[in-house]
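Predict both folds.
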Amino acid sequence: MKMFRNFSIKNKLIILILMVSLSVIGLGSALIIYYDIKTFKNNMVNSTDILTKFLTEFCQGPLAFDRGDELHEELGKLKGLTFIENACVYDKDGEEFAVYKKSPGNFAPPEPEERASSKFRGDYLHVFRPVLYKDKSYGTLYIKASTAELDQKIKDHLKTMGIGLIGLIILTYLLAARFQGMISRPILRLAEVTKRITRDADYSVRVKKQGANEIGTLYEGFNNMLEQIHLREKQRDEAEAEQGRLMVELEEKNEELEQVVYVTSHDLRSPLVNIQGFSKELGYSLKEFSSLLATEKMPPDVKKKFSLILEEDVPDSLKYILSSTARMDSLLSGLLKLSRVGQTTTTSNNIDMNELITEISNAFEFQIKEGGVEFKVGDLPSCFGNDDQITQMFSNLLNNALKYLDPNRPGKIHITGRQEGDRIIYCVADNGIGIPVKYQKRVFEIFHRLNPEETNGEGLGLTIVSKIISNHGGDIWIESEPGKGSRFFISLSAGKPGKKTN
């Protein structure tokens, strides 16, 4: 049955037609043979009955008048009937009255039967017929007839039927091989079109509908399916082309934006330095002007007015100018760092994270000790990336954890890592103030700070982390609860031993 599944539809149809046809032919032939054999036997029984009927009428006189010699002579005439082997006439007492033997030898007649009967036993037909005259029994006639001629007739008949059956099988096969195409040819044509579509990916091909039967319905459905696929393929190609165009445009805009950020942050620092420098110079001049004003003589009210301007108004203004320029300088420095993350050409390799985190923790050793922080690092698996950027990323995460520790309890920072398939998952966990759910996505936005009044910085640390993660094809997510702490998960490529790319 398993082998049958692998046959072509053409061969399957031929086999099925042959199986059905042979079943019908075989059953029909068996019924015909059964009927013919039964007919042959009935004909032999009928022929024998006619003979026994004639003989019983002849036996009436000899049995009635005890003329055995006469009956022996008449039974001898049975030699002309080659199928009669033996015959015996019994008197009314069941004793042998006359016997016929076709060939010399012992013959033991069977016990006579009172009723007429015909029975096939072995290779012979045994017939008993009572000898009656006016419903009075005078004896019984027994005939033993050979079935050799019947057997030969049956064999000849079976041979003829066998030859006819073989001829029917051959004819059935030829007709099945010819007419199976009416079913298989449309399906094979459909299979050929399917194969061509698979090979060439050409969904504009159509199959011509032939007829309004089930095959026609299949063709129509197949064409409709191809139409839908062709339409979807066209839409997909258009969408991919549009996506490609948008990606190119996005890359150009990103490059332009990074260039603008870089140029802006770089070029704005020059006038900012001048503002800072001249503001300080102005401060020095004001101090000098104040000292001169103290030595000069002028009306008290005028001197008081100048003193108020020089000692309060102008210093306050300079204070705001200097703090604003310092803030602007910090923001421009952050923008410059962010633009350099996207512009720098990186070399990636396998990184020993245990060694890298040790170097980072040494750089933060003072802050960790000063804050009394419990700092633990697990056995970290290596990852694949750029040393400088991965160092900057974990430095920003560690700095962020130290910055947002809860002052009301001893700080804890733990760094762990595990491998999942071809990815390495690192976790930087702390017991700090935590991040509300509504802010957990915004912390990666540029210039966003959780508590700007209580913490220093330009709000670019996690933005740079997100940018580095994106450059490495990784992922980052947060699990945090206010008052309990935060866990930053970083997914990076495990890489392969000795692999390096530029």
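Second protein follows, with its predicted structure tokens after the sequence.
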Amino acid sequence: MNMAAVLKLPAIFVCEDNGYAESTASEYAVGGKILDRGKAFGLDSHEVDGDNFFEVYETSKHVIENARNGKGPALLHIKTSKVYGHFEGDALTYRTKEENEEIKNNKDPIKIFKKKVIESRLLEMQQLDEIENEMKSKVEKSILDSKSADFPTEKDLLTDVYVKY
């Protein structure tokens, strides 16, 4: 962050914060406030409700425009909930059963987004279903493409790693 601030780099630091470092609560393991770390270096720093698509979108748009216009780096501290754990098979035993249910039922960003766009009449459920099906197809195609692709060669390991002046 310091180097980005000194050189006014178009860097955007994103901290996706679900309140846990794998299984340790942030309130126990993190000293100070994440947002204050960015502010200490003079970064344009924002705390965002990561469960609110529209707030994330608007704030991201702001810092991206600033980065593209030479206004230097920014920090986005995105406070969110993870419906699932940090890894496949995470038993989520560091959260209470009630907390897991609250997140699953009331803080799922996708459910919140769908509800807002339907209530606002921006989209209909059929359109959302079509979008979801199209994205699932793209993911499945990407998986198949990656599985059928050739393995990289030893030469590929050094491609685009070093720049010659």
